[in-house]
Specification:
Strand 30 (430-434) and strand 31 (437-439) form a beta hairpin. Among the domains are: 199-233, no CATH class; 241-415, no CATH class. The chain has 465 residues and is mostly beta strands. It has three helices and 32 strands. The two termini are 32 Å apart. One of its GO terms (cellular component) is membrane.
């Protein structure tokens, strides 16, 4: 089996990456404003970036900003006002205006209110002026906007009030006057949201764009096609996002799947066989295990190994609970016990607490042994069948009744799976579940896969007889 779920996905040529030279990658939903670019743009209309030397720049409604960094994983962009770059005592020239752009402040941002060329202090409390911005007899002041409990009476006292945004981590309460210059040079962070009209395109795995001349939206798909609103051909995949019922269990979802769902909706090896009014069944190493319950938020399944430790049928048909060459492994708090059936008369050497009495119709001379059983290390009776069974190591197994209870409660196994992949109808391939579109190449950077956790998942398994 090969997994192709990574971030090195092939993307349409119009959505290719560009670097002005400082290492900041210009990728979707941003796009490079090349003078030779065509009318069709792959990205949000307002997110065009140009290069000034080796620095990418973004034009907002009232000014131009250097792009210091872009984090596509959490959808944030860090900007520095070109007007203040390199100045030790910068003077804010304008307010930050976002208007209707799909941009917003983050909780890391801090607004500073500047009052310039004041004939007297605008504050009702004692405040120090900014010495480096003194002009003749007039002074300038700065305060943290969020700390202003009352309106500042600056009209008639100061020529201008402007608000500059900086990173909260760059300013301390007592160091504002000495720190604001360095903070303004390090910039501020904005996050972005999906542009109205682009949701259906992105949900189908496409890249939203537009035609500048026709002023109409486009959806660029990774198969090379271009559509007006969304990528086609993946209608079945929308069913993957819906929870499903399987026998007595409800609200199941990826990585589990059953015959009612497309193979791309689940992970190979985690298919369930549903039975009306009964527990689902999962097959491991050609053995069928009954699933009693699933807690997907906690990644836990509960199942039982046997319903009877004294089968009436052929005891040699007891299941093999080995997990070799499977995606499963036992969790550390479990250990194996061994059940022995149809043993020689030497079983008299086994303490009564470890014997299994199955009656006339069951296997004869049966017993079980834990790793620390007192007779371990001795020559055990010859038995024609032995079966290993995992049990919680915390359980003290004594007597047939307790043994049966522990085995019926089941055992935990963990397994790893590609947390955003499904099974391709081809037997050896996977599809990556990107938003609402499967893709064999992988999910594009900056998009959210439908499955976020990458933890091991814990199962409790049971085998029924």
């Amino acid at each position: 089996m090969n997994s192709y779920c990574d971030d090195s996905a092939l993307i349409p040529s119009k959505c290719s990456t560009h670097d002005c030279g400082n290492g900041v990658a210009i990728e979707y939903p941003f796009w490079y404003m090349d003078v030779n670019s065509s009318d069709e743009v792959c990205g949000y209309p307002e997110f065009g970036l140009s290069c000034s030397g080796d620095e990418p720049i973004l034009k907002l409604p009232n000014n131009t900003y250097y792009v210091n960094s872009i984090n596509y994983a959490n959808s944030t962009i860090t900007l520095v006002d070109i007007d203040v770059t390199g100045q030790t005592c910068p003077r804010a020239r304008h307010n930050l205006t976002l208007e209707n752009l799909p941009l917003g402040y983050t909780n890391l941002d801090l607004n500073l209110s500047f009052y310039f060329n004041c004939s007297s202090s605008p504050f009702s409390f004692s405040a120090s002026a900014i010495g480096c911005l003194e002009f003749s007899t007039n002074q300038s002041y700065v305060s943290m906007t969020e700390n202003q409990t009352n309106d500042v009476d600056w009209i008639g006292k100061c020529e201008e009030k402007l608000v500059a945004t900086v990173m909260r981590t760059e300013i301390t309460t007592n160091g504002l006057i000495s720190e604001f210059g360095g903070a303004m040079n390090k910039g501020f962070m904005l996050d972005w949201r999906t542009v109205k009209g682009c949701g259906s395109c992105e949900d189908s795995g496409g890249f939203c764009g537009y035609n500048k001349t026709a002023e109409e939206s486009k959806c660029f798909c990774r198969d090379g096609t271009v559509h007006s609103s969304q990528c086609k051909g993946d209608q079945d995949f929308t069913e993957c996002l819906k929870p499903f019922h399987c026998g007595l269990l409800s609200n199941l979802s990826y990585p589990f799947w059953d015959d009612s769902r497309s193979e791309i909706c689940g992970f190979q090896g985690l298919k369930l066989r549903c039975q009306e009014g009964k527990r689902p069944v999962i097959s491991i190493n050609n053995e069928e295990f009954y699933v009693q319950s699933v807690d997907q938020p906690q990644h836990v399944m509960t199942i039982a190994l046997w319903e009877n430790v004294c089968p009436l049928d052929n005891v040699s048909q007891f299941p093999d609970t080995s997990l070799n060459e499977t995606p499963f492994s036992y969790v550390p708090e479990f250990e194996n016990i061994t059940l022995f059936y149809n043993c020689t008369n030497q079983i008299t050497m086994i303490p009564d607490a470890y014997r299994i009495s199955c009656g006339e119709n069951g296997p004869r001379n049966a017993f079980y042994a834990t790793d620390d059983a007192p007779f371990r290390g001795q020559d055990l009776p010859d038995c024609n069948t032995s079966v290993k069974a995992p049990v919680p190591s915390r359980e003290l197994i004594r007597g047939l009744e307790n043994l049966t209870r522990v085995l019926m409660e089941g055992f935990n196994v963990t397994y790893k799976f590609n947390h955003s992949c499904g099974t391709d109808p081809s037997p050896t391939l996977f599809e990556c579940l990107c938003r609402e579109k499967p893709d064999r190449a992988g999910c594009p950077k900056g998009t959210t896969n439908i499955i976020l956790p990458s933890k091991n998942v814990v199962f409790f398994l049971v085998m029924g007889y």
